[in-house]
Amino acid sequence: MWDHGTVTPIAPLCTASLCFLDRGAFRVGVNAAGQVVGTSFHQAFEWEHGTLTNLGALVDNASYASWINDAGDVLGAMGLCNIAVTECEGRAVLWRHGSPIPLTLGGITSTPAGLNAAGQAVGEASLPVAPGGPPGSRDVHAFLWQDGTMTDLGTLGGHSSSATGINAQGQVVGFAATADDVLHAVLWDHGTTTDFGEGRACAINAAGQIVGESEGRAVVWDHDKKIDIGLSGFGTGSINPLCELGLFEHGPIISAAGDVALSQCTHAGVCSAYLWDRGVLTKLADLGGDEATAFGMNARGWIVGQSATASGEFHAVLWTR
Q1: Rounded to whole angstroms, how far apart are CA atoms 47 and 68?
Q2: Fewest beta carbons less than 10 Å away: which of 5, 185, 208, 275?
Q3: Which residue has the higher pLDDT, 235 or 186?
Q4: DSSP code of residue 288
Q5: What are the angstrom distances between the C-alpha of 134 and each of 105, 131, 320?
Q6: What's the CA gap between 76 and 58, in Å, rounded?
Q7: Between 22 and 176, where is the model more confident?
Q8: Can you say whether residue 208 is alpha, beta or left, with left for phi > 0 and alpha for psi between -120 and 50 degrees?
Q9: What is the per-residue pLDDT for 80?
């Protein structure tokens, strides 16, 4: 953990040299109290002021933790055969007071995507296979977990949907398939579904501003207004989609002020980091290797991420302003 220039090592769950081989660009979480969650040696952990707790000890197989709120709720996944294998599916899990709560819609897989201060969790989950249907025929729907209840957020007439973010008010964003299997950006707001057209919604702030992609372009939906950020090509043959659920994916972030930090990555994994601030798009400086990825942004607008040096090494970086 880096705190105003002081670096504190977080001890791994094992002593072998291979403990952190699975770190990569893996998503970790930290809250206002300085509690940190992540993964070590294929096990979810929580670290608090020098004390490391193995959250994965009570769940199936490998696990990871990626989100923690100020109440200490932790969101991640369990039951993965190996978290270093992106194709390996598991089940979303919420640790509350240290006890794991599986989050499913009756199917065998689910993926977490976001957690708010109230402990509401979102993601996507498979439905039970229809009687007589082949094992791979299950639908996958966006879900909202709140106070012990899983809610299926449904689709736009298709077979799939995914929730990618939630704000403090419980508004959920993501994407859903139409009857002709086209993905549309969606806002689920306490029982009301808003369709923003072809694309994906990635994240939402407390003011209800949403960042996502629309027809291959990065955009911000500011209530009834759609603003083009100035980056295109998302979801094409050369550029990855702006937001999708994945163990090693970091979607765009939109701050309370409406600023956006995002990365544009080729399918070969070469990324550039950008800041969109008050209508101005700026490519963030790198460490000389012409590669950078934004992972998160705080209330001050400081951005944390990773960048390549001229020699090809990847270092953690902090962009301040």
Answers
A1: 11
A2: 5
A3: 186
A4: E
A5: 18, 9, 52
A6: 13
A7: 176
A8: left
A9: 73
